[in-house]
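Throughout our pipeline, every protein is held as a single compact record rather than as scattered files. The record that follows is passed on verbatim for readers who wish to inspect the format.
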Amino acid sequence: MKVDARKAIALAKIKMSEGEIERLQKDLDEMVELFQKLLEDEEIEGFEPMYTPSEALNPSRPDKPGETLGESWLYLVPRKEEIEREGKKGVYVKSPRP
């Protein structure tokens, strides 16, 4: 397997010098080689796949419906108003001031 550093750079939309590209290509080649060696050397048959790196349970709370804010937060939403400014008519957003 070969990873093309130039393609990765293009997908990431970053700019790199030729020297940086060469170093990145070398690093990617070494990583792929390491993974291939690990897969060849280690016995991986019979293991269940891990979906997370730890066995910790999800510490989040259960999703139960509760009290809502109602309309008490609407003052935060900017309002659109049709305003005439400097002889130009248009729709402007008027945001609330603290």
In short: Residues 1-43 form one domain. The first strand starts at residue 79 and ends at 85.
